Amino acid sequence: MSWIIERENGPDLDLDEVLRVYRESGLGERRPIDETERMAAMVRNANLVVTARVDGELVGIARSVSDFAYVTYLSDIAVVRAHQRSGIGRELIDATRKEAPQAKIVLLSAPAATEYYPHIGFAAHNSAWVLNP
To answer: ∠106-108-113 over CA atoms, to 5°?
Structure first.
């Protein structure tokens, strides 16, 4: 099965499609998917969005905020369960990196994915801090 990976403008994405990906990937458990306006703002304000589509259907998304020079914060990476472990997630990360090749990529891992990221070249960083609202 082949897929298309491309950069898209967050405001141009169909929010219902995006929310379906979050739900069907499991990431929706850790995002405010029931707060439609908040999710719309999250997608609209990300300045680097890379998607994966199979036969035109959105099956994956990498949502980032980047300065394109020093750091890209990969806020979300979601692939619907039916397409997980197919290489789409890695390709989304590779496409994100190609959009900002000089910038390091920083992300916060979902608990279930902590073993995945070292496997594809990420290094653990033990001095990250989170200040919740």
So the answer is: 115
